[in-house]
From TrEMBL:
It comes from Actinospica durhamensis. Keywords: Membrane, Transmembrane, Transmembrane helix. The chain crosses the membrane at residues 12-34, 123-147, 154-176, 182-201, 206-223, 229-246, 258-281, 319-337, 344-365, 371-390. It comes from the Bacteria. This is Uncharacterized protein.
């Protein structure tokens, strides 16, 4: 399917694309900025990121922990509707040295993710902690929308489909996770940057694409290295499949070389954390099965993990069995993309596989959809392609009706 086919790529189309994107940005930006319930949950993880932010801003470990605890308890009082009293919360957790779990090995997992705190710290320094967190969430949410629009357009969708993808991003669970004070939002945005870089390479802008992709990997290493090492191997695999099964213009050495680039990125993103002594997969499993390093680890760690995966999949079946709209949209998007836009299908499938792999590595139903949020990108771009196809089929019909109307008017005259 040719890029932008049936929609035009002239100044008029670009104007519609930019104008539509700005309108969506305005509506979504106002919704995020003015919604007092943007953050409906107080996340334990955010407490740890806040402590890191305060250390970056110059506070010692004890001061940073105290500031983070006061923030956490104040936010918990807000999100609980007054059920939690901030002063009581602070006093209780202070007595045991900080918010549980409070083991050194657990905190080390978050110390190895400095990317998000480094992003928030300048805003927090200028605007204050709460405003800094809110502004970063706003910026990430808006940036993700434009990245979605850009990826769709570069990969082959027309104006209508690209705008449809942008709207879909804000109508699915992706919108919720983009707004949270967690790494999920910046991870999703960084994933989209990585996919944009890949499509630039395949469209012939090799240097620009490799620079964009490398910067995305560098940021991903600092944000959540395990996710982006998995992302790299998934991209390598999906691009190899594309080189075998894609349209002729993509069965090229360039596609194979790009797959090799991502395979190399996987090796680098695996080796660097090992050299730095950052926690690996086994440490993550130990965290899961030792209740955050507070209990003994079961003997058959990997057997327990596989058993937990089975229960996790069953819980997802129960969750979506009663309300299957999201999985149906994901499956429909997967089928539609591979049938109509295989370049976009391969890239988005790699992101979705990363989400699936992340969820299976931490198969805890309590985490909701946060670990597999990338899977919803199949629905995002599938809906965009659906809009594009509907628009393309509608245009000839509208043109025919217009010609018919003009002829009738000429006959009357």
């Amino acid at each position: 399917m040719a890029m932008g086919r049936g929609t035009g790529r002239g100044t008029g189309a670009t104007g519609i694309l930019v104008g539509g994107g700005l309108l969506i940005t305005l509506l979504v930006g106002l919704l995020v900025a003015l919604d007092p319930q943007r953050q409906q949950t107080t996340w334990n993880d955010t407490y740890r990121y806040v402590a890191t932010i305060e250390r970056i801003l110059g506070h010692d470990a004890a001061e940073a922990r105290s500031i983070a605890l006061h923030w956490y308890c104040a936010d918990e009082a807000r999100t609980s509707g007054g059920a939690t009293h901030a002063a009581t919360c602070v006093a209780g957790w202070t007595r045991i040295g900080g918010l549980a779990p409070n083991t050194a090995r657990y905190n080390a997992i978050f110390d190895a993710r400095p990317g998000y705190p480094l992003l928030v710290a300048p805003f927090a320094a200028v605007l204050g902690l709460n405003a800094g967190l809110a502004v970063v969430a706003w910026l990430v949410t808006i940036a993700a929308g434009w990245l979605c629009l850009l990826l769709a357009r570069l990969a082959g969708l027309g104006v209508a489909g690209s705008l449809g993808s942008m709207v879909a991003l804000y109508c699915l669970p992706t919108f919720f996770w983009l707004q949270q004070d967690l790494t999920e939002g910046v991870t999703l945005a960084c994933t989209l940057v990585l996919l944009v870089g890949s499509v630039l390479v395949l469209r012939g802008r090799v240097v620009a694409g490799l620079v964009v992709s490398t910067l995305a990997y560098a940021a991903g290493l600092l944000i959540r290295y395990s996710t982006f090492s998995l992302q790299a191997v998934c991209l390598a695999g999906c691009l190899f499949v594309l080189a075998l099964l894609g349209p002729e213009e993509l069965r090229t050495r360039r596609t194979i070389r790009l797959a090799g680039y991502h395979a190399g990125a996987f090796v680098i993103l695996t080796v660097i954390p090992m050299l730095l002594g950052w926690p690996g997969f086994r440490e993550s499993l130990t965290d899961t099965f030792s209740d955050h390093f507070t209990h003994a680890v079961p003997g058959d760690l990997y057997g327990h993990w596989l058993s937990l995966i089975g229960r996790y999949i069953a819980s997802l079946g129960r969750l979506y069995g009663g309300d299957p709209i999201l999985p149906l949209l994901v499956v429909a998007g997967l089928v539609l993309l591979w049938r109509g836009e295989r370049l976009l299908a391969a890239l988005v499938s790699a992101a979705a596989l990363t989400g699936i792999g992340s969820a299976l590595a931490h198969p805890l139903a309590s985490q909701g959809s946060r670990l597999y949020v990338q899977v919803f990108l199949l629905a995002v771009f599938g809906l965009g392609l659906g809009v594009d196809l509907a628009h393309r089929s509608l245009l000839p019909r509208l043109a025919a009706e217009r010609v018919s109307r003009v002829r009738r008017e000429d006959d009357v005259n």
